[in-house]
Design a protein that fits this description.
Layout (H helix, E strand, L loop, with lengths): L3 E6 L19 E7 L3 H10 L4 E3 L2 H5 L6 E4 L6 H10 L4 E3 L7 H13 L4 E3 L7 H11 L6 E11 L3 H5 L1 H4 L4 H4 L3 H17 L2 E9 L10 E8 L4 E10 L5 E8 L2 E5 L6 E6 L2 E6 L8 H11 L9 H14 L3
Parallel strand pairs: 1-2, 1-4, 2-3, 4-5, 5-6, 7-10
Antiparallel strand pairs: 7-11, 8-9, 9-10, 11-12, 12-13, 13-14
Helix pairs in contact: 3-4, 4-11, 9-11
Length: 326
């Protein structure tokens, strides 16, 4: 392949700004087809984003000769089915997070990719953003010494009655569709960053409960990870916090200082080291997935290594399953 011609399965909200437009902004890449089960919405997306072809059947998109790579952006319940269908057709895939409903599905997807030599990338896109690459650089350069522990707190207020009935929100708290609750929707970003920063995991465990009873999925998760390099991670996710009690904070404690940042807010970190305290900021990205899409295109064109393999994505699913006792 000299150019990656993308087809998107599931052109919903995530593809409007975060990812979709970036496929046409990356070199050697073009968005040539989209699919959504609602034909009117698929056509509307194609017209608005100047995509030449649209479908309401995923198999038609997968078998479109003009499409040589597939982006799977549906809810997690259909990732496994569409991933295997695309790979069976010989087409590399870029699949949204969480990559599947559970570790069993994720590991099966990764094994199929490896065994059949079909490339797969999981959309843990923060890995390629300049802000998080800077954090990794600081860690690798031991600016704060040896990393001892990481503490993450993520609190959000409960969903409103209106949000509970909105289609774009409701599926995220239905375990049969999302794999869990809002933890499964948001924590993959945070947990993948920890894996990206610290490497192989020795053990993971946790507790997941439903405190508010607003929906079936858990709304509080507390988890621990011990990495093989002896870094200890502690995370607490609460989706029933009081108004004004929202928090997104990660603190990395080293032998010579600390790094503080949030994962979903502004691109700003606070570095405390032997040289004092310093704030490092990065500009907001127009399309948050564009750096990862660029890396994926270059990987598909054999110009670089895989930015996030199926095996990597499966590790994140394993950590989530361990924390929620799946």
């Amino acid at each position: 392949m000299k150019k990656i011609n993308w087809g998107i399965i599931g052109c919903g909200d995530v593809t409007e700004v975060k990812s979709g437009p970036a496929f046409n902004k990356v070199a050697d890449s073009a968005l040539v087809a989209v699919m959504r089960r609602d034909a009117a919405k698929a056509k509307d997306y194609a017209l608005r984003h100047h995509v030449p072809c649209w479908y309401n059947d995923a198999n038609q998109l997968i078998n479109d000769a003009a499409v040589n790579a597939v982006y799977i952006a549906t809810p997690p319940s259909s990732h496994y089915e569409y991933a295997l269908a695309a790979m069976e057709a010989g087409k590399p895939i870029y699949v949204e997070k969480p990559m599947a409903l559970n570790y069993m599905q994720a590991s099966s997807m990764a094994a199929f990719s490896t065994n059949n030599n079909i490339k797969m990338v999981v959309a843990h896109y923060r890995r390629e953003q300049p802000f998080f690459k800077k954090i990794k650089e600081l860690l690798n350069d031991k600016i704060i010494g040896d990393i001892l522990s990481v503490n993450l707190v993520f609190n959000k207020t409960a969903l409103t009655p209106a949000e509970l009935t909105e289609s774009k929100t409701a599926w995220r708290i239905e375990p049969a569709i999302s794999g869990g609750g809002l933890f499964h929707d948001l924590a993959p970003h945070q947990l993948d960053l920890m894996y990206y920063f610290f490497g192989e995991v020795e053990q993971a465990n946790g507790v997941a409960i439903n405190q508010a009873g607003l929906y079936h999925a858990h709304d509080l998760v507390a988890g621990h990870i011990l990495f093989k390099n002896k870094v200890v991670f502690t995370g607490n996710w609460c989706f029933n916090a009081s108004p004004g009690g929202e928090k997104d904070h990660c603190e990395m404690i080293g032998s010579k200082g600390k790094i503080e940042f949030n994962v979903f807010g502004k691109y700003e970190l606070i570095l405390t080291s032997n040289d004092g305290m310093k704030v490092i900021s990065f500009d907001k990205l127009e399309h948050v997935q564009q750096p990862m899409i660029e890396a994926t295109v270059n990987y598909f064109l054999d110009k670089r290594e895989n930015p996030c393999s199926g095996e990597d994505g499966a590790v994140v699913m394993w950590m989530m399953d361990a924390m929620t006792s799946k």
